Structure formats: structure tokens, C-alpha cells
Amino acid sequence: MPVASANPLRSGSDAMSIIKLTNLEKSYGALKVLRGIDAEIGEGETFAIIGPNGAGKTTLFKVMTGEVPSNGGRVEFDGKDVTHDPAYRRARAGMGRTFQVARVFLELTVIENVIIAIEARRKNTGDSDDAWYAVVSSRSVVDEARQLLANLDLELKRNTEASILSHGDKKRLELAITLAGRPRILMLDEPTAGMSPSDRIGVVDLIRRLRDESRLTIVMTEHDMSVIFGLADRIMVMNQGARLAIGSIDEIRSSQVVRDVYLGKESQHD
Amino acid sequence: MSRYITYCLVALSGVLLLLLPLLVNPGLVHLAGVTLVMGVFAVAWNLLFGYAGLASFGSGGLFSLGAYVMAISLRAGYEQSFLLLIVLAMVTGGIVAFLVGAVALRRSSGIYLAILTLAMAEVLRQILMRWHWIGAEDGLPNIVRPHFSYGLGLIDLSSGARYHVFLCLACGLLIAAIWWIAHGRFGRTLRAIRLDPERAAFMGVNTYGYKLAAFTLSGVFVAGAGALYAPLAQIVTPDLGNMLRSTQPILFTLLGGASSFWGPLIGGFLFSAIEYGTRTLVGLQEIITGVILLAVVLIFPTGISGAFRKLFASLEQGEPAPARKVEVSDAGRLGKPLTQRV
Q1: Is the pLDDT of residue A189 over 50?
Q2: Domain span at residue A96?
């Protein structure tokens, strides 16, 4: 299915959709959190979901990744209906995600975090050269982990316990864990939340690098409009659980309804 | 360094245990044997608690199951197949654990899992207490210690000393197998699940499947410990599966330290030593044991093994160990690190 995009190199009008959401609904008791969300995300596209607090962005993330079940509608990933698949099956199919507050294995060292993720992927894909009974991880796993950490500027901290990393480093480590699974789509839930300005610049550069070099499909929620406008090909604006608008950066910027509900307020805050 | 000291201590303890019949009276040998079996029970339980983060309060049921399988078979005259009977008991324990786990883990975790497993163990105990064919409340006494031959001459385990040596070797094998499972890829994944099951799931790990596998494997080894216990005690009763028995591995683990593979074993021997040392203090034994346990848990929240680990770490650095060390791999937390320092 064609998806319109502002970036023809990554997801031009002939790009195939990798994710398709159809009439997605989610309620917690009487509270409707998602109201009939429809969207298609093209392969290689960087797709941003924005909206005020409580708009349903994170819930949409959770429903898309299988963390919580939907109450109606359909999630398709790469043409397959994954609506009722648990999170681990979606992860095996190629969905990788990060969380608003970085979730890493705090008691383990940085490299152990990544090694566990690599081993899980290799086991699931059947390309493990480790014997199942191996007590110490193989050289190739360790090398891959170190390479990944080097790409994310964490190589020097590889033997540091994750619990004492800075917030920014934890976010990077979480990204390393997610990338270790070699996802086809990277879902980033507020990747720069709580970061210092310098860390924020670093993470934005990193996401841009991933987008340009790995041609990953990226779906992200973010409050910082400079991050969104610097990275996204298309944007979906949510408000009170519903889709308010969807389109290119220019289309969203020029939308009066979006300005009234969200961007206007953001600019006032700024 | 602490890892090598640990291995040396384990090897020395193993040799000492093997030679025990030559060094002390039969009563102490028997006590050491019981402690060793209970230690294996505790290590197998800690595969669930320390690695997968699952608290089962019903492991005593699986222990009694293994003991009953062995007792019934030996009394029926199958002592020639003694080694196979141990395997049979382990398989039975594994099957029951799988069935219990498939139900319990699907719907519950935390305290609910603890209560559910406790209830299931109690159901098993009630069945054993009412089943006259297996002795009902009186259990099965007069279990013979086996003698068998596999073409290598007669192996006679009828004396306490000989059975003790066999027990040491069998327990050593079981502990080695658990160590191997806990320190391999499976154990590493279990640790990840314990630390953050949702993060693990988003790495493509079927957390339910892994927990069920851990539950089953733990059941296999707990039943194995029960099977070794039956010829040692020469009597099995339904009380083997009561709540007191189920809490014993928990006490051992708290005393020795859940975050160490060897913690439950250390805790087991310490617990037995305290009980033996206070055996003549009628009426005070439970109080003293309780106070010591309370003191250890309060002063050393990571158990005796955790205290030793801190001591080793401070000795290595030449100064008191900080609460959390930088640039130190997870070597001591649950055995070996995933990677040697890389």
C-alpha cells in the first residue's frame, strides 16, 4: 500500500507499508484511550507521533508492540495480522522498542546487557554458533556486542554496572539492547526525555545516523518539536485518543487545527 | 580472585564430605548427608527464586514425590534398577512440576504464585495421607538401602558410610548439572527475565516458556533430592511435603544468600551446624536459631555469601568495598560473568 512521505528517498509514494493500523481502539474501563486510530507507516520512513500529555501516544505504542491488548481494530506488521500476538512474537518478527524511562538490566554490566540481547536474537533466528550449554559467551557474540557499544559510544563503559550509568547512557544502552535484536522497525518512546541538551544532541545525531545508514523504519513519540522536525518524514498528531492529523512536516506545521490544539501551546511554552 | 577461592573451597568441602565417615561418628555422617540432600533441594529451589525470580512455597510436595517414588520402588524390590529409579523420580517430579507450572505461571506471580504452589503441595500431602496403599499417615518405613550390580561387580550401599559416599557423588552430579544450567545461556536469559520480564519479552524472549522450563527443571532436581533422601532416612512420610519442609530451602537461601549459586548450600550447612550446636538446649534451640537467622538477614541482607563477596572485594582493592563498584563485572552476583573481562 503506498504511503505518502516527505522523503522520497526513504519512503516515497511507492514505499510499501510495514505497519498498518486499522480502527485501533483501547479503553481502560470507561475511559477511552484510543479512538479508532488509522495509520500506515512505510518501510524506511521516520514516523513521529505527537500530541499533548494524555493524548494516547504511549498507549498506541503499547498496543502496537503488544505490551497491552487492543479492544478493537487491527495491527498489521509486514502484511501479517499481529493484533493478538504477544510482545515477544512481535519482537521476533522485527519490532524493537525503547521506553520513556530507559529499561535496562541494572544489575548487569553494560556488555552483559547487550550480550543477552544478541544471544536471544541468535537463538530465535537459529544462527547461533554458541552451544546451548556454553557457559561463557562465544567470541563472535562478544565481538558483536563490543562493536555495537562502540557505535553507541559506550565501549569504554562496557564493564560498568548499568545501574550507575547516567540517564543518557542508560538511554543509549537501551538503544544498544534494542538494536542487538536487529529490528526492522525501531520504536522510540520519547528518546530524549529527561536528557541534558548535550545528550539530546547526541541521541538525535544517533537516530539520524541509524535512519540514514541502516535505513531502519523509525516510529517515535517526542515532545521536543525541534527533534521531531529535524528527524521525521511524516507526523501523526493525536489528541484525546483520536488522530487529529497526519502528514508531512509542512502539512502539520501549516494545519490550523494542529496549531490550535498542540503546536500553538508548544510555541507558547517555548 | 574470589571465584578461584570459591572453587577451591567447594573442592575442599567436597573432599571433606567424602571423607567424613572416616573422621566423625555415624550420627554426624547421617546429619551431613541429610544436610547435603536438603542443600541440593535448596539449590534447585534457588534456580527458581534467585535466577527466574519465582517464589514457590510448594517445593516440599515435589521433594516428597521423589522420595515416595523411590520408596515404593525399593520396597517393591527394584533395587537393581536403583540408578534408573533416581531418573524415574526426577522425570516424575519434572512432569508434575510442568503441569503445576503450566497452570500456576499462566495466571499468577509473586505472592499469588507462592500461595498457589503451597496449596498444590498441600493437596498432594493430603492425598499421601489418605492413600492406605502407601501407608497413609504412617508413611513407608523399612526402606532398604540398595545393592546392585551393573556388570562391574556388586555395589553395596546398605551401610550408612557407603551410602554417604554415594550420596556425595550423586549430590555433586546434581549440583554440577544445576550449575551448568544456571550459568549457561538458559541461566543468563532467566536472569534477564528476573530483572525485567517486559524488557526481556521485547528482546524476543518467551518469558512464560522460560519460566515454565525453570519451574520444570527445578522440579526435576528437587524430586531427585527427594529420591536420594528416601534410602538415607529409610522412611518416608507425608510430612516430607509439609509447609515446614517447603520453607527449609527458603531459610537456607536467605541465610546463605539468594544472589549466589552456592548460597543455599552454605546456608544449609550453617543452619544444620546451628541446630546441632544447640541440640541440647531444650526449649531454646528454636529461639537461638531464629535470632541468628534474623541477625544474618538484618546485618547481611545478601546472606553469608554476600558478606564474603564484599570481604573478598575489599581485600582485592585494599580498602572497604563501596556499595556499588564501577568497572566490575557481575562475577560474584550469580556465579561467573557472561564474559571474562573483555
Answers
A1: yes
A2: 8-104+184-269
Contact A65 B202 (CB under 8 A): yes
β A80-81/A72-77 pair status: antiparallel
Say yes or no: A99 and A114 in one domain: no
Interface contact A119-B188, CB threshold 8 A: yes
Q: Are residues A143 and A213 located together in one domain of the fold? A: no
What is the pTM for the complete model shown? 0.86
**B189–chain A Cβ distance below 8 A for any pair:** yes
At A46, which amino acid appears?
T
> What SS3 class is residue B332?
coil
Same structural domain for residues A49 and A65?
yes
Residues A31 and A148 in one domain: no
Q: Where are the alpha helices (DSSP H) in chain B?
A: 2-23, 26-46, 59-75, 82-107, 110-130, 160-183, 185-195, 197-201, 207-233, 243-256, 263-277, 285-299, 303-317
A259-263, B98-102, B256-260, B330-334: segment of lowest average pLDDT: B330-334
Instruction: Please say whether the beta carbons of B246 and B58 come within 8 A.
Output: yes
Q: In the structure, what pLDDT confidence band is assigned to residue B285 with cuts at 50, 70 and 90?
A: confident
Identify the three-state secondary structure at position A209.
Answer: helix
Residue B223 in grid coordinates: 524430586
Q: Residue B172: left if φ>0, alpha if ψ -120 to 50, beta else—which one?
A: alpha
pLDDT of B327 higher than 60: no
pLDDT > 90 fraction of chain A, expressed in percent and rounded: 47
> A133 in helix, strand or coil?
coil
CB atoms within 10 A of CB B104: 25
Contact A15, A5 (CB under 8 A): yes
What confidence tens digit (pLDDT) does each residue in B161-200 have?
A: 999 999 999 999 999 999 999 988 889 899 999 999 999 9
Closest Cα partner for A22 from A97, A77, A100?
A77
Pick A164's closest partner by Cβ from B184, B201, B324: B324
Q: Which member of A65, A136, A178 has the closest CB to residue B339? A: A136
Q: Which residues in chain A have their CB less than 8 angstroms from residue B196's CB? A: 103-105
CB atoms within 10 A of CB B181: 22
Give the cell for residue B305: 555469601
> Is B195's Cβ below 8 Å from some Cβ in A?
yes
Q: Which residues pair with A17 in a beta bridge?
A: A42
On whether both A62 and A115 belong to a single domain, the answer is: no
Is there a single domain that holds both residue A100 and residue A136?
no
The answer for residues whose C-beta is within 8 angstroms of residue B41's C-beta and 6 or more apart is B59, B63, B222, B225, B226, B248, B249
CA distance B211 to chain A (A): 14
Lookup: cell for A120: 536471544
Q: What is the mean pLDDT of chain B?
A: 86
Cβ distance B97 to B63 under 8 Å?
A: no
Looking at the partner chain, which of A104, A120, A130 has a beta carbon nearest the beta carbon of B204?
A120
Pairing of strands A72-77, A17-28: antiparallel
Q: Which of B192, B175, B230, B158 is nearest to B51 (CA)?
A: B192
Is A25 in contact with A81 (CB distance < 8 Å)? no
Whole-number Å distance between alpha carbons of B29 and B115: 35
Q: What's the ipTM?
A: 0.85
In chain B, what are the domain boundaries?
17-243
Question: How many domains does chain A divide into?
Answer: 2
Residue B205 contacts A where some CB pair is shorter than 8 Å = yes
Q: Is position A174 within any domain?
A: no
